[in-house]
């Protein structure tokens, strides 16, 4: 019984582009993600975040190394949620949910109804996705992923297109469901507030080949905040890639979405 | 709600009336001024003759028999093409080796217009009906096949990734995700294929047929009955439009119009 949900060992991946030749996305990358924890990943566009999660989810092959899920458990389930194309538009909400779980449970319809009830969405089961708002669609998509009781949940900028209020609700729902199901999660985001709020650990991805640094996401004082900002800006401004401003964190502090607020 | 639906229906009917009458109006105007530059409008029969021809033709049982024969040929050829082309497209997209094997053959045969198949089909098939059915089949097969391949190859990858994460079977992936996701392309192929079938049936009936609306058009032409030819042309147009309308309704019934991309 391993304590690691995901273990990445010496992972190498490169793409061949006609004009640029071979581009190494990652070279001898090692990473361990512990069971039941939420890992936020921040990083510039094109840093290789999506490629990495595609390799973890098994959607993309790698050149060498290994991605070991739960010590090689074949029954390990991975759930994934994207920013767009979240629900199948030709299926009703009920059919969308059933598509995810009909083979796994005895009475899937009742299970789906219970899940929808939990999110206050029981009235939409016969609607089509385009009859619902973007926020509702995303909430249902999140429920659909968690309906299958996955061991690992990957959110690929899943809440990126939502307004602040809906995003906040989604984050709350996600944390609530995480405390119930205790899955491991990878949250890829460009929003530092979201990364800190959701993640037990924040991984800052940078460079090519890919490197990362683990940041402290347990912010309890102004000093912690200053230290975190300094560290992040050191990582990114050094490479002239990305600069987080202090106001981002100040705003997040004001609206009370800090990690300590949920502890 | 009801008044809105009624208003909408009236608006749609008006659109059709205005569209057709403006076309007829232009033709009549050109006939009235005896336009003779490049195209001769002086030989176009007047509206009165066409209407009396139409009234005469719709009383004849033979006219309806010919329509039913042509409809039967078109729908048989079209349905056969759809039932073969869509699974073939799935098979090709799912097996890259098959794709490379079949691609040159498809590209070679695809550009041949279905009219060019008429002489060969007469030799290939023992009966005239068989050869006409083959022409309608060929007219629909390639548009459906090519559009289906195109649609299946460009299914949103996130749809597939999500389905894979649910560990669905290949059958569920094809029937539940890929085909519905490619529905708009497949539907375009069906619409183009339907036109191809109509084109094929009319040409084949004109050349080698002994019955059907194409044959009737040709008979009217050989008898120099231009008003009969025009009536038959309008009937072919109306039948083609009706076929497209049925396909569109079917598409809506299957809820594929719920696709946000459309």
Structure explained in plain terms:
Chain B: It is found in: Cell membrane. Chain B: Keywords: Cell membrane, Membrane, Transmembrane, Transmembrane helix, Transport. Chain B: InterPro entries: MetI-like, MetI-like_sf. The complex is a heterodimer of chains A (263) and B (262). Chain A is an alpha/beta fold and 263 residues long. Chain A is built from eight helices and nine strands. In chain A, strands 5-6-7-3-8-9 form a six-stranded mixed β-sheet, with helices on both faces. Chain A has a three-stranded antiparallel β-sheet with strand order 2-1-4. In chain A, helix 2 crosses helix 3 (108-118) and helix 4 (134-147) runs parallel beside helix 5. The longest helix of chain A is centred in the middle third of the chain and has 18 residues, at 164-181. Chain A is globular and about 50 Å long. Chain B has two domains: 1-44, no CATH class; 45-258, MetI-like (MetI-like fold). The longest helix of chain B is centred in the N-terminal third of the chain and has 34 residues, at 61-94. Chain B is globular and about 70 Å long. The model of chain B has no long low-confidence stretch (mean pLDDT 87). Chain A binds chain B through residues 54, 57-59, 77-80, 82, 84-86, 88-91, 99-101, 103, 128-130, 145, 148, 150, and chain B through 156, 158-159, 161-168, 172, 176-177, 180-181, 183, 254-256, 258-261.
- Secondary structure class of chain B reads mainly alpha
State the helix count of chain A.
Answer: 8
Across the major sheet of chain A, the strand order is 5-6-7-3-8-9
End-to-end Cα distance of chain B: 25 Å
Please tell me how large the radius of gyration of chain B is.
22 Å
Overall pLDDT confidence of chain B: 87
Shape of chain B: globular
Number of strands of chain A: 9
Q: What's the level 1 CATH class of chain A?
A: Alpha Beta
What Rg of chain A, in angstroms, do the CA atoms define?
19 Å
CATH C-level class of the largest domain in chain B is Mainly Alpha
Q: At the fourth CATH level, what is the homologous superfamily of chain A? A: P-loop containing nucleotide triphosphate hydrolases
């Amino acid at each position: 019984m391993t304590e690691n949900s995901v273990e990445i060992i010496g992972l190498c991946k490169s793409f061949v582009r006609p004009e640029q030749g071979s581009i190494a996305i990652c070279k001898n990358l090692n990473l361990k993600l512990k069971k039941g924890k939420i890992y936020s990943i921040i990083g510039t566009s094109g840093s290789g975040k999506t490629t990495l999660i595609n390799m973890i989810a098994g959607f993309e092959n790698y050149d060498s190394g290994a991605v070991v899920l739960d010590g090689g458990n074949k029954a390990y389930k991975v759930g994934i949620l994207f920013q767009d194309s979240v629900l199948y538009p030709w299926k009703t909400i009920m059919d969308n949910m059933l598509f995810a779980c009909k083979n796994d449970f005895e009475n899937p319809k009742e299970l789906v109804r219970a899940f929808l009830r939990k999110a206050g969405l029981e009235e939409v089961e016969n609607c089509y996705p385009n009859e619902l708002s973007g926020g509702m669609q995303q909430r249902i998509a999140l429920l659909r992923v968690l309906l299958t009781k996955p061991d690992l949940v990957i959110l690929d900028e899943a809440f990126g297109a939502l307004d602040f209020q809906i995003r906040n609700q989604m984050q709350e729902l996600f944390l609530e469901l995480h405390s119930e199901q205790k899955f491991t999660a990878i949250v890829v985001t460009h929003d530092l507030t979201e990364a800190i709020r959701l993640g037990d650990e924040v991984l800052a991805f940078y460079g090519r080949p890919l490197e990362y640094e683990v940041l402290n996401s347990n912010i309890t004082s102004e000093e912690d905040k200053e230290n975190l900002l300094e560290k992040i800006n050191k990582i990114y401004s050094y490479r002239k890639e990305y600069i987080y401003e202090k106001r981002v964190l100040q705003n997040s502090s004001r609206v009370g979405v800090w990690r300590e607020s949920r502890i | 709600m009801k008044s809105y639906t009624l208003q909408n229906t009236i608006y749609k009917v008006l659109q059709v009336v205005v569209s057709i009458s403006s076309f007829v109006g232009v033709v009549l105007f050109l006939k009235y001024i005896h336009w003779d530059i490049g195209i001769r409008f002086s030989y176009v029969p007047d509206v009165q003759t066409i209407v009396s021809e139409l009234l005469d033709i719709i009383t004849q049982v033979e006219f309806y028999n010919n329509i039913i024969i042509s409809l039967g040929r078109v729908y048989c050829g079209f349905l056969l093409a759809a039932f073969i082309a869509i699974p073939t497209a799935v098979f090709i997209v799912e097996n890259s080796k098959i794709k490379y094997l079949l691609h040159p053959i498809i590209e070679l045969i695809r550009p041949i217009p279905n009219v060019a198949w008429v002489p060969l089909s007469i030799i290939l098939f023992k009966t005239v009906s068989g050869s006409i059915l083959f022409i309608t089949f060929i007219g629909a097969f390639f548009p459906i096949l090519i559009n289906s391949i195109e649609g299946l190859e460009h299914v949103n990858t996130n749809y597939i990734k999500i389905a894979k994460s649910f560990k669905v079977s290949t059958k569920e992936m094809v029937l539940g995700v890929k085909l519905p996701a490619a529905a708009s392309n497949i539907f375009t192929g069906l619409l183009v294929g339907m036109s191809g079938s109509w084109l094929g049936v009319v040409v084949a009936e004109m050349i080698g047929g002994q019955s059907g609306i194409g044959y009737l058009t040709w008979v009217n032409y050989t008898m120099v009955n231009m008003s009969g030819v025009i009536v038959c042309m309008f009937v072919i147009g109306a039948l083609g439009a009706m076929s497209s309308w049925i396909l569109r309704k079917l598409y809506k019934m299957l809820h594929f119009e719920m696709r946000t991309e459309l």
